[in-house]
Write a structure and sequence with these properties.
This protein is of the alpha/beta class. Helix content is about 50%, strand content about 10%. The protein contains 34 helices and 26 strands. The strands form 6 sheets. It has an 8-stranded mixed sheet with strand order 4-3-5-2-6-7-1-8, sandwiched between helices. It has a 7-stranded mixed sheet with strand order 10-9-19-16-13-15-14, with helices on both faces. A hairpin with a 4-residue loop joins strand 3 and strand 4.
Length: about 950
């Protein structure tokens, strides 16, 4: 209390208050109804001090406050601020927030398909838009003071992550960077890199959630706490977090109920007791149905809730199940409010399209407070769901994991149906990072006292594994940066090849690779010290012992090589001799468990092999079936014949012989002993050693004897030190090769890309050709293919719908790449042009292989996918939505998203295509107009 302060302390406190009032932070804090958290204050103070900041904090903790302070500073200083987001939905959301705070005159929006007030001092944009502005040297960059990179952990994204690093590297030095990230385990490493490329950067990490999170498992009728807290039941960092023993007992009981065939041997009364116990268990343990889960959450006051289902069809099915179950989460007043909002937001959609889009079923769910949210939905529908959820008019949302990526839709509870999801290649357990991201939605700041994460009981659920997911915070940020063709021509155009190479070596990818080299480098250093000691140990006063040791090694290596050759020749000769065997041959097995006299019943030559073949590997050579003199029938292998084998005699095998009959075996073995038991096998003469006649060995032995060190009394001591020296030197060279493989990896990839572009006349030294300048304006995964199609005039003379069909192949990727059904294509010129595009891709693919540019490493051109060509052609030809979606067999949301991407690339092509003697530029603009209609036009988010 102030009255307890001494006069000096009171004076100091007053000075501190006055100093704070003089900062830009003081009036900014007054703009919010709640007080700022310590990590927010620390980050804002660092920003005001002129430092860049990296803020890593959990979802929903209020990181964006720091970004908004950068906006505040920019407006105070009369400078610009760009606020970048990874997806258009976030851009739209942040634009609306900033307009509400600062007014429409001061805030603009730039996304791939929206441009609002582009000259405003504060512009919200997608990260790609800023990257393109940097390469184009846009005038909008003048006066830029701050750039906020929201969700900067997106740079781990293998498809788009490189864009974040390009922006960070290429931003002017005068720009202060504000990086906002989810909680990552290597924030300090990322901060060190930012410090290197951007200058003084403060790293602020906050692990604490603003709203405590409780973890549960719902099994049958009971909600179990995942952890048994010893102290601090408020959920804020309990002193001990043990897995709930009741849950562990439940898991053990469930796992012991698995069927065991041996149980059939037990008595009838015991089986009856087991069945009765199982019936009792079943009454308590089951996976609750989706309507049952929502009803349970509603009864416990845990709505609104987001249920994550890793399937679009599963999300839609969940809504239908809740509707069929008669669930109603809204009263009449809320239902009316929902209908008003929905009708206002969808007024622009023609009524015939509403039927196609499943509008009325969707509306019924919304009125009851239930909805799905996934990428297959129409963007407008998704926006409405988000708005109603935030308003509390939708209380149960069934969503795919894409909802976890930044959209501001906090809930009181989050439900996970399963801990396994399809990752594009296989069903895999979700990672601790994914679990944290998904459950991070639970708990609304300023509304909920605590958030709840509920995992549904599934057969085989391991509470210990779940506790590991919930308690682990390992979410490392890994760079996915790779140079591209477009990046290469833009860099060379601006900086030349040498400076471009240096810039790429400042990437986070190279920074991480170099750091991984540090430990290896230390080991190399230790090894080199050890080599020095070994060198002293093998020093000989008579001469150069290192040279003498090298002669000994060369001699040993040559002898080993000849021995291997001899062994290989003997194996080949033995295999060849086995191939010549026939049923009825009597042989002598030279070695092994069944060595001795044997009768060949079946030569055992693999299918497709014939006599005289060039020999067999040990594992697939002839495997003769023989009867031994001891009455055993065995299948032998090549290993039993280290030397060639020959038939000593022949016998007739009776047709009645049955190898499974002991009597048959006894009779035939007796006949074998009678026929050939007296024959002694011919001893195999050992061939003369190849080493005896080898000139190289003779030369090395002569040099060895003539060497001064050969007569040294301590020769063998020196030799032991020399052997250690050699082994350590070999290990050191391997480590050095590993270092070389990780050092300059990005620059080496860049060199290969530059070499290919030079071959295709996009670059000439430090000069970018006209072809290269065209490529510099084409951004996308298939940038080089698009440029080659323009150069080869593949698209000349195509109508706008035909051009739209061809360009769709540059952006579209089927969700199931193994679909064997060939896609339907437009006929005529469009089909011919698509065929030519695939031919050009084949040429580029061969070139990439020649220049060692690998798609597996994320560099290079994938094969164009023709799966959207027919849908794009139909839509651009003014066909109805019902017909297009039916033939495309595609959800409306996917259709709109692919159309938006086609429109984006068509715009790039219109700008890059020649304006004279070409129809492509004009028809690309017409194709944009043809596609930008109906559902595509009124969907503001793509």
């Amino acid at each position: 209390m102030t009255e307890d302060l001494t006069p000096a302390e009171a004076y100091a406190a007053a000075r501190a208050r006055n100093a704070e009032q003089a900062t830009a932070l003081a009036p900014f804090r007054e703009m919010y109804e709640f007080g700022l958290d310590p990590f927010q204050i620390e980050a804002c103070q660092a920003l005001e001090a002129g430092k860049g900041v990296l803020v890593a904090a959990p979802t929903g903790s209020g990181k964006t406050i720091v970004g908004e302070f950068a906006v505040h500073l920019a407006l105070l200083q009369g400078r610009k601020c760009f606020y970048t987001t990874p997806i258009k939905a976030l851009s739209n959301q942040k634009y609306a927030d900033l307009v509400k705070r600062y007014g429409p005159d001061k805030v603009g929006l730039l996304t791939g398909d929206n441009s609002v007030n582009g000259d405003a001092p504060v512009i919200v944009m997608t990260t790609e838009v800023l990257r393109n502005m940097l390469y184009a040297g846009s005038q909008a960059l003048s006066g830029l003071g701050y750039v906020v990179m929201d969700e900067v952990h997106y740079l781990s994204d293998r498809f788009r992550g490189a864009v974040w690093e390009e922006v960070i590297i290429h931003l002017p030095e005068s720009v202060t960077l504000v990086s906002l990230s989810a909680t990552v385990s290597n924030a300090e490493e990322f901060g060190d890199w930012l410090d290197t490329v951007r200058g003084d950067t403060e790293v602020i990490v906050s692990e604490s959630r603003p709203v405590p999170l409780w973890q549960h498992v719902l099994a049958g009728r009971r909600m179990y706490d995942l952890f048994e807290e010893e102290t601090d039941h408020g959920g804020r960092g309990a002193s001990r977090r043990e897995v709930n023993p009741d849950l562990l007992r439940l898991a053990r009981t469930e796992n012991t109920r698995t069927y065991n065939p041996r149980e059939r041997r037990r008595g009838k009364m015991i089986r009856e007791a087991d069945r009765e116990r199982e019936r009792r268990q079943r009454s308590r343990i089951w996976t609750p149905g989706r309507p049952e889960v929502i009803e349970r959450l509603d009864a416990e006051g845990l709505l609104p809730a987001i249920t994550f289902i890793f399937s679009r069809a599963g999300c839609e099915a969940a809504v239908q199940q809740c509707l069929y179950a008669g669930l109603r989460l809204n009263n009449d007043e809320a239902r009316q409010r929902v209908r008003e909002i929905v009708e206002a937001r969808t007024a622009a959609i023609p009524s015939e399209d509403l039927h196609v889009l499943g509008y009325y079923e969707w509306l019924e769910g919304l009125e009851r407070g239930i909805a799905a949210h996934h990428a297959g939905m129409l963007p407008t529908f998704k926006e409405v769901v988000e708005e109603l959820f935030v308003r509390g008019l939708v209380k149960a949302v069934f969503a795919t994991e894409t909802l976890a990526l930044g959209i501001n839709m906090p809930a009181r509870s989050v439900v996970l149906e399963k801990l396994v999801k399809w990752n594009g290649e296989q069903h895999a357990d979700i990672t601790p990072g994914e679990y944290t991201q998904l459950t991070g939605r639970a708990g609304r700041r300023g509304i909920d006292v605590e958030g709840h994460a509920v995992v549904l009981w599934q057969r085989g659920l391991d509470p210990g594994h779940l506790a590991g997911l919930a308690g682990t915070r390992t979410y490392p940020l890994r760079s996915s940066f790779k140079p591209s063709y477009n990046m290469a021509v833009n860099l060379v155009d601006q900086f030349g090849r040498h400076r471009s190479r240096e810039l790429l070596e400042t990437s986070f990818a190279q920074f991480q690779a170099d750091r991984s080299v540090v430990g290896i480098s230390r080991q190399v250093q230790k090894n080199e010290e050890g080599l020095e000691g070994y060198r002293e140990g093998m020093t000989c006063h008579l001469g150069d012992f290192e040279e003498y040791a090298r002669l000994r090694r060369d001699l040993k290596d040559r002898e080993t090589e000849l021995a291997k050759q001899g062994a290989a020749q003997r194996r080949a000769a033995a295999a060849a001799s086995l191939e010549k065997l026939k049923p009825g041959d009597v042989i002598h097995v030279p070695t092994g468990k069944f060595a001795g006299l044997a009768l060949v019943l079946d030569p055992g030559i693999p299918a497709g092999r014939t006599n005289g073949h060039r020999g067999f590997e040990q594992h697939d050579g002839p495997r003769p079936l023989v009867l031994t003199a001891e009455r055993q029938v065995k299948r032998l292998a090549s290993i039993d014949f280290p030397i060639p084998v020959e038939a000593m005699e022949r016998m007739r095998i009776p047709k009645s012989f049955n190898p499974r009959s002991p009597q048959s075996r006894r009779d035939l073995a007796s006949a074998l002993r009678t026929k050939a038991g007296h024959i002694n096998p011919e001893r195999h003469r050992k061939d003369r050693s190849a080493a005896a006649d080898d000139r190289e060995i003779a030369r090395l032995r002569t040099e060895l004897r003539a060497h001064p060190c050969h007569g040294c009394d301590e020769r063998e001591d020196h030799a032991r030190w020399a052997e250690r020296y050699h082994r350590l030197q070999r290990d050191t060279k391997q480590l050095e090769r590993r270092i070389e493989g990780r050092t300059n990896t990005i620059a080496r990839t860049f060199d290969r890309i530059v070499a290919l572009l030079t071959e295709l006349d996009y670059l000439r030294g430090d000069d970018v050709t006209d072809n290269g300048k065209r490529l510099a304006r084409l951004y996308g995964e298939l940038d080089l293919l698009a440029s080659e199609c323009l150069r080869d005039r593949v698209w000349e003379g195509l109508t706008p719908p035909e051009l739209a069909a061809c360009v769709s192949a540059l952006v579209y990727e089927a969700r199931q790449s193994d679909d064997a059904v060939p896609p339907k294509l437009p006929t005529g010129n469009a089909k011919a042009a698509l065929g030519e595009m695939v031919r050009i891709w084949g040429k580029l693919d061969a070139l990439e292989e020649e220049f060692k540019i690998s798609q597996a490493e994320g560099v290079g051109q994938r094969e164009p996918d023709l799966g959207f060509a027919w849908a794009a052609y139909q839509w651009a030809s003014d066909k109805g939505l019902d017909e297009v979606l039916r033939e495309a067999e595609m959800p409306a949301g996917d259709f709109v998203r692919w159309c938006k991407q086609v429109i984006d690339v068509l715009g790039q092509i219109a700008a890059a295509a020649p304006k004279e003697n070409s129809t492509v530029s004009k028809n690309a603009r017409k194709a944009v107009d043809s596609l930008l209609r109906g559902v595509v036009a009124y969907s503001s988010v793509g």
